[in-house]
Amino acid sequence: MKTVDPANLANPANPTRSVKMRVAADRSKCMGAGMCALNAPEVFDQDEEEGLVVVLEPEPPAEHRYAVRDAVNLCPAGALRFEED
Ligand code: SF4
Prior knowledge:
Oligomer: single chain
Distance between the termini: 28 Å
Bound molecules: iron/sulfur cluster
Mean pLDDT: 86
Low-confidence stretches: 2-10
Structural class: alpha+beta
Number of domains: 1
Largest sheet: 2 strands, antiparallel
Shape: globular
Helix content: 10-25%
Number of helices: 2
CATH class: Alpha Beta
CATH architecture: 2-Layer Sandwich
């Protein structure tokens, strides 16, 4: 049986290669719904004053890839961006 390092799950087509991710948030679009912090709490938070998104990890580790994608897709304001190499 082949064992895959979870750190390499970012690229299932080539599990020997890690993929670098970058996330960014446009706080002017954020409406404080909190879906991002709920889905990827290691990567996103909300500020105390307005409840707007704060990116904790602009280059999150590969193990958060799926949570980050969910957060980006579920953001009702379209305030999040996700890129990977
Ligand atoms: S899910 Fe979108 S709208 Fe809600 S807090 Fe996060 S960035 Fe803001």
